[in-house]
Amino acid sequence: MEINARRHRMEINARRRQIEINAPFARAYDFANIKVDGTRITASTRLSMAGMNFTIYASGYPFIHYMIKNMLPGSYHHITGVFSASAYISQTSTRAMLSIRVRPTLIEPVSVDRSTTPSDAIQVTDTPTTTTSKKLEFLIHLYCLQEWENCETSLGDKVVFAEKLISLYERLHQEDMIIGPGAVSPPVSIQDATLETRSSLRPGTKKTTVKEVVLGTYPAVNMKTNMDDSPLVVPLPPPPPSPEQQQQQQQHHHQQEPMLD
Length: 261
Hints:
Layout: E1 11-13, E2 20-28, E3 33-37, E4 40-49, E5 52-58, H1 61-70, E6 76-89, E7 96-110, E8 124-125, H2 134-146, E9 152-155, H3 158-174, E10 178-179, E11 188-198, E12 205-215, E13 232-233, H4 243-256
Parallel strand pairs: 3-9, 5-7, 10-13
Antiparallel strand pairs: 1-2, 2-4, 2-6, 3-4, 4-5, 6-7, 7-8, 11-12
Helix pairs in contact: 2-3
């Protein structure tokens, strides 16, 4: 594939007050990192081009979806956006390091030999006419709750986040955007749980009631499907295992347990 020499250049436009970056051939280092702060979701990915490393940060749901689905290690993308740069001294080095943060306004796939960029990746832009799909917002939130342990959630309240997801579900269900035999049940529930704590200074235990988030039986979110504006069809939850199946599962679990010599 022939790449115009001009497209190999990383261009920086400083004519405006906001400094813009144009990286038409940026390579992703790793998968997108998802961060939950309260109910706000952001995604970030490290990329490199022409010897310069930078990280993009996005909070728009179309960008988050693109980054989760398409930014795989070794994939190539055209990135434009506003950036800021700062210098710092690394603890493992005596030379100054440069940190570049980019807020993307355009991400589009670039297809080259040996690239891991998915063939069905579609360009996303940040324009005043861009509208966020309510369904996409719901699926991104459901994905984060299903992948909660793999997200950066130190500032995220799981109960508050689940309450927002339930609110999104109720709105879509009323608008017939969530249909199917399993649509009558929300994707998550919030239940009271009793927590027992024992003090080393006093005998006995102390019981405290806390809120617990329980995922429903919705299938895992597939970022490759159901992302258009068509209704989301939810199947019936799988039936509970029979006593025979439970016994077989327990026997299989015991067989998998390591034996001590």
